[in-house]
Each structure stands twice: as structure tokens, then as C-alpha cells.
Amino acid sequence: MYDPATNKINRGTRFGTAPGSANGQFITQAEADRQLDDLAASVNDALAAVKIDASAGYGDPTGTVTRAAFNTATATLVDVAQRLGALITDLKAAGVLKS
To answer: Measured between alpha carbons, how far is 13 from 11 in angstroms, rounded to an integer?
Structure first.
């Protein structure tokens, strides 16, 4: 069983497959730790691969910005512009866009 306090899988927990064994056999704590480390490394590699370089050239929106819901069938140009301003502001704050 996984123990979140120690970030470890307790010895004897059914987790994965031990090398050279039938699927689902009990594995050692060391093997469980190795499998978790491999999984964490794979997740980190995947996250690093999807990083976005910030696109430059975006000015700061002026006027009213809003994040409120709107009806796409009846939205005006002003409604859309206000939400676009909020989106640009948020993406710049998150580092996705830059000036």
C-alpha cells in the first residue's frame, strides 16, 4: 500500500511486475521505488517536451477586460474584445506571451 507520508510503497504491495516474473507478482520495495522513479522521470520528460516559448510582440490591452460568461450567438465585438483582453493579460502573466 502507498504511504503518502513517506512517498513509498510498503514492502509486499502488489505494484507492477518484477523483472522475470509473471504479471502481478509481489515486488520488492526497491523495485517499486525504481518503477516510481522511472515513471516520474517519464512524466517530467513529457512535461518538458510541451513547454512553449513565449511569443513576443503583444501589447497590454487597455480599457475594460472581463472574464464573464457570454452567449456566443449574441456576443458583440465589444464583448469579444473584452474577453480577448483578459485572455492576453492572463497569458502574459503566465509567461506564455510577452511584450
So the answer is: 6
